[in-house]
Amino acid sequence: MPAPSITPELKKDLEILQLRHVMDPKRHFKRSGKSKALPKYFQVGTVIEPASEFYSSRLTKHERKQTLVDELLSDQKLKNYRMRKVREIQVARTPGGNQKWKNKGKQTFKRAKDRRK
User: Do residues 64 and 71 touch, judged by C-beta distance below 8 A?
Assistant: First the structure.
């Protein structure tokens, strides 16, 4: 198998394939190895669906994109999942917000009253 020349589009597709365990929370993939380097030898092909899958699990012309990255970026379910995960991370990493200025219970009110004296 000859080593193909790596174009920017192929490089993005290979990186997406290495990070596929992050994309879908319901699927679990076997790790492709410890190395984070892109593979030197690989082949790219096209999946041709049989006629029996015309109504069940085929992509329409509108859903088909040029590269794997474009297909994943246009997928609405994946987009919702990514937005939800980003929001969760932002909430977890946001420092107290305005909660630190709110009085909570009688104890804080008493301490504020004592400070005024």
Answer: yes
Helix (H) or strand (E) holding 18: helix 8-18
Tokens of 76: 């609405």
> pLDDT tens across 64-77, in order?
888 888 888 888 88
What is the C-alpha separation between 95 and 30, in angstroms, rounded? 36
Closest CA to 58 of 72, 47, 42: 47
The separation between CA 6 and the C-alpha centre of its own chain, rounded to angstroms, equals 24
pLDDT for 74-105, tens place per residue? 888 888 998 999 999 988 887 766 666 665 66
d(CA 2, CA 60): 33
pLDDT digits (tens, 9 = 90+) for 46-64: 878 888 878 887 777 887 8
Place of tokens 């400070």: 115
**Alpha-carbon gap, residue 27 to 24, rounded angstroms:** 6
Rounded to whole angstroms, how far apart are CA atoms 84 and 87? 5
